[in-house]
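User: Fold this; tokens only.

Assistant: Input:
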Amino acid sequence: MNDSDVNAEPSPEPSSAIVSPFSAADVEAILREEGWLSEPATAETEQWIRDAAESLGLQVALHPTGEEKTRLRELLALIFSYDAGKVLELKDNQAVMAREGARDVIRELASRVLAGGEIDSERLREIIAELKVIFGSGGRKIFYPLRLALAGRTGEGELDRVILLIDRAAQLSFSIPVKSARARMLEFCAALC
């Protein structure tokens, strides 16, 4: 979902011609270095790690900077470290929330997220489609508040991949519990008041 594309949808799966520069072992190493995973990984955790390596790694590979491992670590940090109060302290994030309609987007997003169910690819597409019906085309008006509330940062489509990994991670036994999309939404709305 590029912000310049006002009719954007959640980021499509990256082209099969691009290969993730990261393996599950790379992601697991980062998780262990950061203290997010200390016990042996279960089969479900190993699958999540493989999915994170592929999904986030492909997003990083789409925009190479020479700092790919740092970018992967930063994206993973968005899953494991979420504090809505700190997110909303940043001036750039305050500016996003000060834009006309941003609080309305958050209100409608919260209604849909709190209605229940895991935020997977299909559910995220449904939520965005519903928000577009209410607010018109997507672009920054919808995506900046949505990504800020759920991923803790504004940005491009790589954050959509983060959002899609959150609820699955919240169900797993990591060293640091991952806040689900529902928990993040509640925390964000409370911090916004």
